[in-house]
Amino acid sequence: MATLRETRDRITSVKNTSKITQAMSMVATAKLRRAQDAITAARPFANQVQKILSNLSSADADYVHPFFEQRKVVSNVAIIAISSDRGLCGAFNTNMLRVVSTRIAELKAQYPQAKIHLIPVGKRSVASARKGKDPIAREFSDVFGKLDYSTAIEIADLSTDYFLSGQFDQVEIIGNQFVNVMRQEVRTTRLLPIIPSQENASKSASADYIYEPSQSEILSTLLPMYIKLQVWTSLLDSNAAENAARRMAMENATTNARELITALQLVYNRERQAAITTEMLEIVGGAEALASA
After folding, report:
1. Nearest to 172 by CA among 185, 153, 159, 184
2. CA-CA to 51 of 20 to 30 Å: which in 154, 202, 252, 289?
3. For helices 149-164 and 215-292, angle between their N-to-C axes, nearest 10 degrees
4. Rounded to an integer, what distance in angstroms lies between the CA atom of residue 103 and that of residue 186?
5. Cβ neighbour number for residue 292 with a 10 Å cutoff
6. Residue 112 half-sphere exposure, CB side, CA atoms within 13 Å?
7. CATH assignment, 2-25+249-287
8. Which residues carry out catalysis?
9. Per-residue pLDDT for the chain (293 aa), expressed as one digit of tens each?
10. Residue 74: other Cβ atoms inside 10 A
11. Are the C-beta atoms of 193 and 101 separated by less than 8 Å?
12. Listed residue (229, 215, 230, 225) closest to 56, CA to CA
């Protein structure tokens, strides 16, 4: 019967889909291991540099580096929005883009005269930014296929150059942070101007530092490195979170496909049994008709 054939074809189609999602889950798992190792290795160094900068910035000194400058009038704010290059990773990109939209609304309410500039990183972020009305400072697409430190350097140099020249008064990064395989959080981080950690600042408030070479030379060396590390760890975080989200999404899709196959198999068996029963009744009815003729 046509109904049986349609059900059988649908079961075959769902089985093929489950094989694809299972394979994608395995690929995401392999990529996740490498991405997780990368962000785990990068975090301690970035955190230690941040502590050193907090100590240096909190020390009493006449010199204040331009990266610490809090502009009294904020006219231009840049948002580095980090997404993935590909889909099939659940609500990974949707959650990030929602936070970006909310943050833009908050900034416009906080600074009514300010202009919001976007620096989208990843195909999904670029596509979303192109649909919006806010100006795009620069696009970074296809970065996660082969993630390289040079990309972080480009983004960091763009941000620092525009900040020092006065084209940006504030720069923020919005992207997914890898917490664990089951959990990814969208995080908003202030990149420029740098805000020292209050905890580290209070611990080192009474410390007396002797600088060799000068404080300005030390900060001029460490701060650009720190900005690049902040961007790099954000990219690594997003990459690990993307693979974790894709792994979970494909595992859920595979589980759902197998449940659907079970349900369709029951439907197929019922339809097949009904067809066999109908044929048997037709045979019996025909035999009785011939016997009474």
Report:
1. 159
2. 154
3. 130
4. 12
5. 6
6. 0
7. 1.10.287.80
8. 89
9. 557 888 888 889 999 999 999 999 899 989 888 888 888 888 888 888 877 776 666 555 566 778 888 888 899 999 999 999 988 888 899 999 999 999 999 999 999 999 999 999 999 999 999 998 999 999 998 899 888 999 999 999 999 999 999 899 999 999 999 888 888 899 999 998 887 665 555 554 545 666 677 777 777 888 888 899 999 999 999 999 999 999 999 999 999 999 999 999 998 888 888 888 878 877 877 777 777 76
10. 16
11. no
12. 215
Is residue 212 packed enough to be buried (19+ CB in 10 Å), middle (13-18) or exposed (0-12)?
exposed
- Please list, in sequence order, all residues whose beta carbon lies within 8 angstroms of the beta carbon of residue 237, skipping any fewer than 6 positions away: 39, 175, 176, 177, 178, 187
Largest CA distance in the chain: 118
CATH 3.90.180.10 assigned to 28-248: no
> Both tokens of residue 263?
């349900």
Sequence spans of domains, the chain: 2-25+249-287, 28-248
Q: Report cis status (omega within 30 of 0) of the bond before 120.
A: no
